[in-house]
Amino acid sequence: MDELEKNIPVICVGPTGSGKTTLLKKLQDAEGIDYTYSPVPTIGTNIYDINYVNKQGKKQVLSIREVGGEMVTLWSNYLDGIEKVIFVVDTSNLCQVSAAAVMLYTLLAEPRLRRSKFILVLSKMDAAYRQMRNEALLMLQHTRLCSELHNAPTLLEAAPLAGTGLDGLRSFLIH
Ligand SMILES: Nc1nc2c(ncn2[C@@H]2O[C@H](COP(=O)(O)OP(=O)(O)O)[C@@H](O)[C@H]2O)c(=O)[nH]1
Ligand SMILES: [Mg+2]
């Protein structure tokens, strides 16, 4: 099927190298981890189908489109019909956080995403990077966003490589 014809209700965006592919792969392979996977930067977009069982006990599939950081100028092509936005920021790379903040604000201000739910994933929250958490949140002005916006992002701390944060992401996606 042409990927553009498929209904993709979730978009996963954020700077290059922030851990999007690792996170989505882990989410997809949560039951059987794929050890053959070695991350290479995503050029263009990838689609991940996530299987889950809904409240009625029915099997469902949720499609997520990852849009690479280099594709930032093309994000606009993928925003129609988006219900949820996963925005991934690399906490281990504070140099990238202010650029990420600009991207995030652009999406939050996008009329087509007015009714969409956002989750802000603080990625790579390994022990070594935990201390950067508060600086990252300050740079992203998360507190201000929460007080000023009706669609302020939910916050999730994740370490995609270790698979931490997957439960939180799954529940955001399913509910
Ligand atoms: N330290 C650390 N590195 C990670 C983590 N998750 C992903 N990475 C690494 O970050 C790099 C970029 O990851 P990738 O998923 O390709 O990022 P993307 O460009 O946003 O899709 C890879 O080398 C990953 O192995 C993590 O939780 N901790
Ligand atoms: Mg990628």
UniProtKB/TrEMBL annotation:
GO terms for molecular function: GTP binding; GTPase activity; metal ion binding. This is ADP-ribosylation factor-like protein 16. Mg(2+) binds at T21, T42. Keywords: GTP-binding, Magnesium, Metal-binding, Nucleotide-binding. It comes from the Eukaryota. It holds the Pfam family Arf. GTP binds at G14, P15, T16, G17, S18, G19, K20, T21, G69.
